[in-house]
Specification:
162 residues; eight-stranded mixed barrel
Amino acid sequence: SGAGSSSGAPRLSQAYAVLRIPRLGLRVPVAEGTSKQKVLDKGYVGHYAGTRQPGQEGNFAVAGHRNTHGEPFRYLDRLEKGDKVEVETRGATYTYVVDKILPRTSPRDAGVIRPVPRSLTEPAYGYDAPGRYLTLTTCTPEYTSRYRMVVWGRLVATRSRG
């Protein structure tokens, strides 16, 4: 499903949703793609191309900077199970609830953004069954990009606009 297809995929590098994390007082635009130059360095959170869109079956996966460039995910490590993460698009607001946290994995751990996310390097972390998942990724420890921290949530509510 490329741009202009019936899925209405967002154009690359364009902000098309807003991510809100009430516990962190965070409100940040979500743009398509994870290009450092075009997305992450502008202070946006980037949607991993090839993962699902908000509210869809599968995994809506995003990345954000921990330090510099607006550092939207600076305090991602303060999230706890049960915290809400809201994603607002033009059509609806999707509410996810954090239920799993992977403190540290390899930057190359592609399992964390699969449709049914599970870490390839830390296989105790992840899910076994299809669902509607949210994945938040950022670098860890602070001021390095040696590892990734991953926070996962499940969709609990969808509120249509209009």
